[in-house]
Amino acid sequence: MGRVALTRVTKRFGEVTAVSDITLEVEDQEFLVLLGPSGCGKSTVLRLIAGLESPTDGSIEIGDRVVNGVEPKERDVAMVFQSYALYPQMTARRNIEFPLKNQRTPKLERARRVEEVAETLELTEVLDRRPAQMSGGQRQRVALARAIVRRPEAFLMDEPLSNLDAKLRTQTRTELIELQRRLATTVVYVTHDQVEGMTMGHRVAVMENGVIQQVGAPTEIYDHPANLFVAGFIGNPPMNVLTGLPTSEDGRLAIETPGGGIPLTAPQQDAVRRSGATQVAVGVRPEHIRLDEDGPLRASVAVIEALGYENHVVCRLEDGQQVIVRLRAEVAAPREGDKVHLGAEPRRLHLFDATTGARIGT
What we know:
By secondary structure, the protein is of the alpha+beta class. The chain has helices at about 40-50, 90-100, 105-120, 135-150, 165-185, 195-200, 220-225, 230-235, 265-275; strands at about 5-15, 15-25, 30-35, 55-60, 65, 75-80, 155-160, 185-190, 205-210, 210-215, 240-250, 250-255, 260-265, 280-285, 290, 295-305, 310-315, 320-330, 340-345, 350-355, 360.
């Protein structure tokens, strides 16, 4: 069983708390992504699972046993690093078989398993090359092969695609997804790249400042972010967030911003009243906001980002708050400097307490 579970795990380095009271369970054969900005503690979580760091508090289970105090080599996990960590003097074949030699696997069995994994990862032709004679993508696949050949209970991957160029990163991302499905194995994958997180993981755990902010399927996190941090971190372009004051007129509540009042549905109004928030952050995805002559928000067009398949119309309110509108390429875009009105369906709005960051309503 490749189950991995952390229960109330904390890790401190002196006065610094790198990981705070994390409880997380990774199911057998699940691909779970730890996603967050640099320095949020996600790599520390991976090192704690691997045994390269010891928790200050809490327990860690791999399979059906608690591994606190168990040496890394006894944990039956394989780690893939950002830097490949290959032995430069060894060929790809010797790099891949190295963990099997440490396990005293018989020579014929070693050779069979190396050939098998090399064929799976399309490395057969480079088995006799040293790392310096291989491309970045080949070196990364050798590092993966070295982990796979051990057949561990779980794979731990620490930003393994960061050193690849954009095209190769996309290709290798697809290969990793297919590989995990073929091997039917457990993967805990660390990245700061939200595209990797949203496309690769069965579930995503979003971290900030050593704390897990939300765990869920990628679509759940995108459609229902738990707080203002998750809302702003997930999405490319990111969610538009406008801060305003709850204002009542004729018994109807709206959020008044420098660009105008944002109307709310009756349930949204009730939720804002119940929350007691004195400032409300209104979030709306760029694809859910539109250029609308009758829209309630006044703005000016600052920049048009032409991407070929679509245009990003970057607008600013009077106080400088930015709003990005996503337009299909075939839709006529305004010109830079134009005055425009913006609108969105109220059901597409996400409401947050601007002070605490907590989500308001469902």
